[in-house]
What we know:
Strand order of the largest sheet: 7-6-1-3-2-8
Order of helices and strands: HHEHEHEHEEEHEEHH
Number of domains: 1
Strand content: 15-25%
Helix content: 25-40%
CATH class: Alpha Beta
Shape: globular
Number of helices: 8
CATH superfamily: Peptide methionine sulphoxide reductase MsrA
Structural class: alpha+beta
Low-confidence stretches: 9-32
Radius of gyration: 16 Å
Amino acid sequence: MNNIRMNNFFSRPIxxxxxxxxxxxxxxxxxxxxxIPVGQPGHPAPNEAVADFAEGCFWHAEIVFQSLVGVRDAxxxxxxxxxxxxxxxxxCTGTTGxxxxxxxxxxxxxxxxxxxVAAFFASMDPTELNRQGPDEGTQYRSVAFYRTPEEKKIIxxxxxxxxxxxxxxxxxxxxxxxxxxxxxxxxxxxxYIVNHPNQPYVRSVSIPDYLRFRNNFKxxxx
Length: 222
């Protein structure tokens, strides 16, 4: 259990109560019995590509992308800041400039970058500035990192499509920035949800958010 995240979570008793009720009704079973998608660690294969996204808590983002056919692994870490030796405690102060990020390893012959971008926007609220749900701070901001002009255009086209659809009443504030560096998070953050399925934050926030994504996104799931 991470004290920083849990202290932030428990400081919002109304939010906790609401999500606890939602979790019980949405899961319909103990969270430990849910099939949580797990990544397959390893060096990138010649046929694989890499993408990086920040959408609040990286525990949630990890299982979102790992649930999609064509994604081998999503590694939790930090990106978008200036500190070359970030760790969780410093990132949580908001002084390093980093956002909690997942680095996604995928097979472009099975899933497109455009689908990853669509999943990214479908799995969080892109209108929330410097926060997602109960997590507040610049480290929880929404960021789509691009490596090529083609990727940048795909991200911007999806933002334009969502804006034109009037799905959100507020403006999309997701940052679209070039990728520079990614720093893997501490080992205990990797595959956190599958290793701690009944931790209060996981059960009341992460898993309900993941189930909502699966119910709403028209993707090819494992």
